[in-house]
Each structure stands twice: as structure tokens, then as C-alpha cells.
Target: Putative mycofactocin binding protein MftB
Amino acid sequence: MTDSPAGSTPVAGSVTVPADEAPFDPGVGWRKSRSVALRPEPFGALVYHFGNRKLSFLKSMPLVAVVKALEEHPDVPSTLAACDVPASQHRAYVTALATLARSQMIERRPEESA
Model:
């Protein structure tokens, strides 16, 4: 997420999940956390969580677009497709989103009642 030069693909890697934490599920709906603000920057965006006071850097403009678009799509693969992320880069984006979820920058959307 923060190792990529501006405008490049997030770097794929493993995300360690504590035993008491559910793993990131790209098959469900996500959104930018309500307590989070994105501040556009030339390299991408600063992400600040007002609740836990964490600060992150998104060093990829396409990743910023994906984070903003999460709420408009039913799941992560749909969001990546809508943002024209090449399939070969999906794993790297899922890894970046999992990291954002662990730091509470994005959150699962509540289930919609039928």
C-alpha cells in the first residue's frame, strides 16, 4: 500500500491476521469508514481515522479511486472491475484493502435487509 511509487500498482504481500480477527473477505460489501477522511495529495491521498487517530498514505491514485468507489459496488471484485483495475493486479489491491481494513480505514458495509 505505501511501498508503491505514485500512480503505480500496490505491492502484493501477505497480511497477518490475529487469531481473534476475521480475515478480510473481498466477497462482501465494504466502504470507507465513517470516521475516515481522505485528503487528496499529488502522490495519492492521506487517510486519517478520527477515532483511532491513525494516519496512512495511499501512494496510488487508482487505489484512492477504489477506496472511494467501494460503497457503490456489492463487493471488492466488482469495485476493481468498475475502476478498470487489470485482473493481474487484483491480488495486490486486495492485499492493500485488507491492510486498510485491519487499520479500520475501511469497514464492512452493514447487510441490507431484503
In short: The chain is about 25% helix and 20% strand. Confidence is low (pLDDT under 50) at residues 2-6.
